[in-house]
Amino acid sequence: MMYIMNKLIYGKLCFVLLMMVALFSSCNTQKKIVYIQDTENMMKLKTAYEENITLKPEDQIFIIVSCRDPQISAMFNLPYFTNRIGGVESYSSSGFVAGSYTSANNVMGYTVDEQGEIDFPILGKLKVGGLKRLEVVDLVKQKLVESNQIKDPVVSVEYMNLGVSVLGEVVRPGRFRIDRDHFSFFDALGMAGDLTINGQRKDVTLIRHTDDGDQVFKLDLTKASSIYGSQAYYLQQGDVIYVAPTSKRARESSVNGNTVRSAGFWVSIASAATSVAVLVTNLAVKNK
After folding, report:
1. Which of the 8 DSSP states describes residue 147?
2. For residues 99-130, b (16+ Cβ closer than 10 Å) or e, as one string?
3. How many beta carbons lie within 10 A of that of residue 201, not counting itself?
4. From CA 16, how far away is CA 225, in angstroms rounded?
5. I need a surface site. Which of 79, 112, 123, 183 has the fewest CB within 10 A?
6. Secondary structure of the chain: what % helix, strand, coil (to 5)?
7. Long-range pairs for 88-92 at CB < 8 Å and ≥24 separation?
8. At 275, which helix (H) or strand (E)?
9. Which of 129, 125, 122 is closest to 144 using CA atoms?
């Protein structure tokens, strides 16, 4: 009778121990994967750095000039080519006419040279390096009015080849196009399909090339202060984001790397420990 009672007690203790380990492990895992756990810091940190993208050498942009007279505006717009439709290739030098701008178009743009300049039709060299997109709009408008070419120009400037790279433990690693002035870290992460479950939320690296050398930012996605309060929140062209793998993912590169960390392994250990405890108790009872 004593043997049976001892066996039941040891069995219950092992069961409770396993349940506590499982609950602790579950809570700990949730804390590791949930983003921005200190949400109270978001409002005071969100606007810490709102720097617009500035143009650099090798950046490409396209500029569209419009006015009341389409023939005059055509002089300031680069030609564009559309893909063949029905065996006919169309060509135009009049800029973007209604309904003509589609993803199939091969748009000709301006490449910023090493001096930070572009060669604009009629106006000649324009210094755009170091300017923001809307500053380029103002510059082109100003030059057009000063040259007495157009009195009421409407100018649009858009990015062409600006992008960021997202590598490591994300669903879709690759290079993604910057399509707005304030392009955030989470915009890039969303385009990459978010981190995989094996991505290390507390160890994300952003590398940024500047004129003064490369800058490296370490981000902890579980903390608002690490993201919203960082200069890395709004991305720049050429930024590289790398998501490190979790220790579990890293161990998968070796044979049986995660065996000792698996739940089945520890259940087996607990079962063996229970058997040993019961055996010891049984021997003690028999020796009395």
Report:
1. T
2. eeeeeeeebebbebeeebbbebeebeebebbe
3. 21
4. 38
5. 79
6. 35, 25, 40
7. none
8. helix 263-287
9. 122
Q: Look up residue 46 and give its two tokens.
A: 């969100």
Q: Are 59 and 117 in contact (CB under 8 A)?
A: no
Helices 263-287 and 2-33: crossing angle, nearest 10°? Answer: 160
Let me know: does 160 contact 109? Beta carbons within 8 Å: yes
Residue 217's pLDDT band, with cuts at 50, 70 and 90, is: very high
CA terminus-to-terminus distance, the chain:
14
Tokens of 21: 């380990």
The answer, as to whether pTM is greater than 0.85, is no
Structure tokens at 246: 């979790």
DSSP 8-state secondary structure symbol assigned to residue 109: -
Give φ, ψ of 18 to 5 degrees: -65, -40
Q: Indicate the length of the chain as a whole number.
A: 288
User: Token pair of 175, please?
Assistant: 């290079």
Per cent of the chain over pLDDT 70 is 62
Asked if 79 contacts 93 with a C-beta cutoff of 8 angstroms, the reply is yes
Asked if 153 and 122 touch (Cβ cutoff 8 Å), the reply is no
- The residues near 166 (Cβ < 8 Å, ≥ 6 apart) are 173, 174, 175, 176, 188, 189, 191, 192, 241, 243
